[in-house]
Amino acid sequence: MHSVRKKRLLVITAIVLILSVAVGLVMYALQQNINLFFSPSQIAMGEAPRNANIRAGGMVVKGSVKRNSDTLAVAFDVTDFQHKVTIEYRGILPDLFREGQGIVAQGKLNNDGVFEATEVLAKHDEKYMPPEITEALKNAQSSTGESAESAQSTY
Amino acid sequence: MFPEIGQFSLILSLFFALSLASVPLIGYWKGNRLLFETARPLTFIMSALVLVSFVTLSLSFLTDDFSVLYVSQNSNSQLPVWYKFSALWGGHEGSLLLWVLILSGWCSAVALKIRTFPEDIGPVVLSVLGMVCVGFLSFLLFTSSPFARLLPDVPADGGDLNPLLQDFGLIVHPPVLYMGYVGFSVAFAFAVAALITGNLNSSWARWARPWTAASWAFLTLGITLGSWWAYYELGWGGWWFWDPVENASFMPWLAGTALLHSLAVTEKRGVFKSWTVLLAIFTFSLSLLGAFLVRSGVLTSVHSFAADPTRGIFILALLLVLVGGSLLLYAIRAAEVRSTVSFGVTGREAWLLLNNILLTVLTLTVLLGTLYPLIFDALGLGKISVGAPYFNSVFTPIALLLMVFMAIGPLSKWHHTKFRVFFKVCSISAFIATFSAGLVVYCYGFGFIAWLSLAVAFWVVFLSFSDWFGKVSAGTKGIIPRARQLPRNYYGMLLAHLGMVVTLVGIVLVSVNSHESMLRLSPGDRATIAGYEFQFDQMEQVKGPNYVASKGQFTVYKAGNAVAVLHPEKRFFSTRQQVMTEAALDAGFTRDLYVSLGERLDDSAWSVRIYVKSFVRWIWLGGLMMMTGGLLAALDKRYRKRAGV
Fold first, then answer.
1. Is B468 exposed, middle or buried (0-12, 13-18, 19+ CB in 10 A)?
2. Per the domain annotation, does A60 fall within a domain?
3. What is the pLDDT of residue A147?
4. Is residue A153 part of a domain?
5. What is the DSSP letter of B150?
6. Which of B142, B378, B458, B616 is most exposed, with the fewest beta carbons within 10 Å of its own?
7. Rg of chain B's alpha carbons, rounded to an integer?
8. How far apart are alpha carbons B462 and B482 in whole angstroms?
9. What is the tens place of the pLDDT at every residue in B367-417?
10. Whole-angstrom distance, CA of residue B341 vs CA of residue B266
11. Gene3D superfamilies this protein is in (chain A) (predicted)?
12. Which has the minimum average pLDDT: B38-52, B66-80, B302-316, B428-442?
């Protein structure tokens, strides 16, 4: 074969090889590590898978935060003003975690319908609202406008 | 009065930017020298006007002029004076002004050095930079002016700077990061100017190289500072989160690294010419994409500014115009570019090509992971997030592979290298590296990935030193004179590569050898972590300039001796009604002790995070080494010569 062509072939083979390995890796990793977000309403309607890594979030319901007196375990409810879901977590909550604040949790929904969080995220600016929650609230609001409005006023 | 001056000079600077973007180019096409040479004075006037505007906004901040909306949102009369100044870039509008200031600063630097390029290209470069300035200045003026007034209802006091930003990190991280981000627009301008003038021989690579190296060095430092800041400020001791905005700064870094290497090949060998041009365009596009991701609020991130869709659309349009335009130009001109020199598949070109392929693949995997939630949402498949495990599992193997080759490249010669030349040194190094890494892993009981990474680290260190030693020991002059003769460029490379290794070692050890625990502690309690005894001595209330804090005291003992006293704080900022964690840490070369307070649980007990982080400083030490390497390369003597000499 002509040497220039041979070179080109070599280069192209190298690129294709590396790219295919990378694509394989990406596909595999994406399959493992995508976390879908579910709103409390979606969870209540049974749309969320059990025992799979997902995200859930909403506004923390006032007066729902319960702490264990000996350990760092804590449980609280989040709501989109339609439905509630209980989140259990063991660890230190972020600074901006507050009742009435929007949060997102990462973890698994167990068979009792309780969300066991491995991570709780609240954003670093009190004006900032995670987009998932904004949308979940909007969706919940549009399904029954009135009740959501009244719920919001209590917040 | 000041805000109006600022606004006015910003508008004027837009006019000068418009002239800069057009007049020299008209001069170029018409062959009119006079018009062509206006580029330099226009650049200086534009930059001076932006500077005036920046100074007026700083004055508004320093004098607590809360009639300015932006000041009232981001500052407060109680704020310490240095934070008042840095609060200028604590929000979207001001940080964009900082961005524009730095952009015009780079323009002026190019204008100052214009005599080092051939006469016919310098003004074209400035003109292209002028177009970029037009884009950002109009973005600033039309969507996000920081000079808007709150009249006649002037608030008595400001809404305060986000407490998280009231830190030394805010003073240094954004300016340095922007220096890097924006600096790539110079490389972009060179590439586009080369396309416009058709002057695509390898010389443009030579002029673009020091500028690219300098911006790369700044970006490296900016990312390093950001990582260090996040580590001590956010209070959970992480140093990298694969957060979309971190990725936004990391992608131009990866592409810029590829660009740095491919520029070297283009300059020295005259090959990969069109690829290098394309890479320069892409690196800058990724900087713009970063700006889009941060400022449009399309992605969930810790860095998000309060979202405003019109801004997102504006940057997207800017991105399309600048990138689309340059790609179009590229499509028209690229056919004319043919590498006349062939390259050897066994020479250094081939290794650098491999470097470029791997870095591009890395950039694409990060890009995909970052944008995947957007794509997923746009297709109506639901809201997702792509977690750190994705990035870790994809990034690690490719990056390790890259580092394996990173050591071989410098050993090889241009065009053709005989296999046996480096077979011996490579096999010896591979043997020593696997063995010594195995020994470390065996002694400390680490896993496979740690072994692999450490082996790669040792491999790079051995090969780099044997390369250096080979270069200085050949010949008769003696080691020291020869070592001093090697170009700065070479030492820059060596330092950057070793910096990469230092960072790798830090990353590996901090992830396999750290001890973390979250505990419930009351004053008087003790906890033992990794051989260190943490005693919770007491808790007291203290008052800061604009906050009140609960301040804890922890004494750390090792083998009965006190080694450190740590004071973690929980601060309450009354203006914003916001709580902030101030972690306390005892930094060390091989370990950090890290204590941060969670929350008060009952009368006396607190939730407390205690970490013993192994070798975490090495991550940033490596970053500093890489930055120094980049600066050494930028300051190489070869680039100081005037054109044509």
1. middle
2. yes
3. 39
4. no
5. -
6. B378
7. 26
8. 20
9. 999 888 888 888 888 778 887 889 988 999 999 999 999 988 888 888 777
10. 10
11. Nucleic acid-binding proteins
12. B302-316
Residues of A in contact with B382 (CB under 8 A): 36-37
3-state secondary structure of B243: coil
* Average pLDDT over every residue of A14-35: 84
pLDDT tens, B227-276? 999 898 877 788 898 888 889 999 999 999 999 999 998 888 888 888 89
Over residues A57-99, the pLDDT tens digits come to 888 999 899 888 888 899 999 998 889 999 999 988 888 788 8
Q: Residue B612: its pLDDT value, please?
A: 94
Decide: B559 and B567 in contact? Cβ < 8 Å.
no
Task: Please state the length of chain A.
Answer: 155
- A30 near B CB under 8 A: yes
- Residue A47 burial (CB count, 10 A): 12
**Given strand B584-586, what is the order of strands in its sheet?**
B515-521, B606-614, B591-600, B584-586
| Confidence check on the interface: ipTM exceeds 0.90, yes or no | no
Please indicate, yes or no, if residue A10 is contained in any of the structural domains.
no
Per-residue CA distances from A69 to A118, B600, B638 (Å): 20, 12, 69
Cα B326 to Cα B136, B181, B227, B320: the distances in Å are 17, 18, 33, 10
Tokens of B191: 């590439």
**pLDDT (tens digit per residue) in A104-155:** 888 999 998 899 998 888 765 555 566 666 777 777 766 554 433 333 333 3
Total count of domains within chain A: 1
Average pLDDT, chain B: 89
Contact B598, B582 (CB under 8 A): no
Q: What is the CATH number of the domain that holds A112?
A: 2.40.50.140
Bridge partners of B526, per DSSP, are B535
- Is the separation of the CB atoms in B498 and B505 below 8 Å? no
B212, B608 contact by CB (below 8 A): no
CB B103 within 8 A of CB B182: yes
Choose among A53, A102, A54: nearest CA to A76: A102
Helices (H), B113-243: 122-143, 168-197, 203-233
List A67's β-bridge partners, or say none.
Answer: A74
- Tell me whether residue A42 is in a domain: yes
Element containing residue B103 per DSSP (H, E): helix B92-112
Contact A124 B302 (CB under 8 A): yes
What range does the domain containing A77 cover?
33-122
Cβ <8 Å between A124 and B162:
yes
Closest by Cα among B355, B631, B315, B356 to B496: B631
- Kindly state the tokens that stand for B268: 């020295």
**Contacts B520 to A, Cβ<8 Å:** 70-72
Residue-wise pLDDT tens digits, B137-153: 999 999 889 999 887 78
Q: Residue with structure tokens 């960072």?
A: B503
CA B264 vs. chain centroid, Å, equals 21
Q: Do B607 and A7 touch (CB under 8 A)?
A: no
pLDDT value of position A146: 40
Closest residue on chain B to A128 (Cα)? B306
A15 in B contact zone (CB under 8 Å): yes
Chain-chain contact of A33 with B580 (C-beta, under 8 angstroms):
no
Q: How far apart (Å, rounded) are the C-alpha atoms in residues B400 and B457?
A: 9
Residues B563 and B576: their CA atoms lie apart, in Å, by: 37
Contact (Cβ atoms closer than 8 angstroms) between residue B544 and residue B571? yes
Provide the pLDDT confidence category of residue B496 given band limits of 50, 70 and 90.
Answer: very high
- Could you tell me if residue A125 is left (phi over 0), alpha (psi between -120 and 50 degrees) or otherwise beta? beta
pLDDT at position B200: 75
Q: Where is average pLDDT lowest: B36-50, B117-131, B192-206, B555-569?
A: B192-206
**Distance between CA atoms of residues B184 and B193, nearest Å:** 14
